Amino acid sequence: MAFNYRYTFRGKSPDLTESRKKGPEGPRPWMITVGIAIAVALVLLGIVKLVLVVSGGTVRSASATAAQGGKEENKAPAASKKEAKKTPASDSKQKTLTGEAKQGKAVAPNPEAEALCVKAEEAFAAEKYNDAIELALKAIASVTEEDALWDRAALVLGKANIALFSSDLRAPEKELYSVKKGDALALIANEFNTTIEAIQKGNGMAETDSTIHPGQTLCIYKGDWKIRVSKSKCKLYLYNGKKLFKVYMVGIGKQDRTPEGTFEINVKQKEPDWYSKGVKYPYGSKENVLGTRWLAIKPTGDTDQNLKGFGIHGTWESGSVGKSTSNGCVRLENSDVEELFTIVPLHTELLIED
Length: 354
Fold this sequence. Notes:
Layout: H1 17-22, H2 29-54, H3 62-67, H4 81-86, E1 91-95, E2 101-105, H5 111-125, H6 129-141, H7 148-165, E3 174-178, H8 185-191, H9 196-202, E4 217-221, E5 225-230, E6 235-240, E7 243-249, E8 252-253, E9 261-270, E10 274-276, E11 279-281, E12 293-299, E13 311-313, E14 324-326, E15 330-331, H10 334-343, E16 349-353
Parallel strand pairs: 5-16, 8-14, 13-15
Antiparallel strand pairs: 1-2, 3-4, 5-6, 6-7, 9-12, 9-16, 10-11, 12-13
């Protein structure tokens, strides 16, 4: 209803008569515009909801994202191509030769290799070492080294070989030898390409006992030993002929200081002193980095003959094994280098590669 204020300034009441005569007024134009806008908005909203239902909810509104704390905005950016190469898309836990977990590429399951590993482990537990060795070698041949089963089989292989090597049990690689007059352990070891320590260990002799007599029967493990070191894998592979005997984890030189090429062992020393820049560090001193054994190597063939001062040795820092931390030598755990020292004689061939 409209009021006529023509006479209000004179103190008269509003004139209602004229408005009654005219009757009620219709809606104003701005009201019509607002109503149309609301109607259009409702229609559009209904269309959007219909699209969301049809598409299975794959499209999300901004308000829904905000309500969930902005999860869409907080996603980590995609890795660059360079980063993707460094980190495999799918990694799985593998076992090292020492039983510690490590990251490695996921590989397809291999039930046959798994079964061979289980049988090899069972044979080893039953002290059937020859069977364990055969089964472990078959398992190794059926998988790649990236597979955790390779390390698992190699672990059993090494333990079984060492068990045979260190005992008087029969094995295809062993030969019975009858001591003759004038024999000595050093002469017998040289003839069979083995070591004095190996003969003593395989015949239950003390390390300090070198006494033998004519007619005595010795069980000798005949070896055709060769060593290969992989810098990229931080592993030392010990072979008897073409057969893998055992695999050891090693530490190598930092900043790629470990040389590559062919070498041979030319010096073997127990409880070695260490010489650095003209200073002697006696065995057992904290500055001596050589551990309990030292096997010096010299280059052979086409390898640079100026590569001197390198070798294989032990370490007091077990955490450095499996890493690039040495000054160029190949280092093993003390217990491992002592074992290797017992097995390989002088002039054993060595290949170091990336």
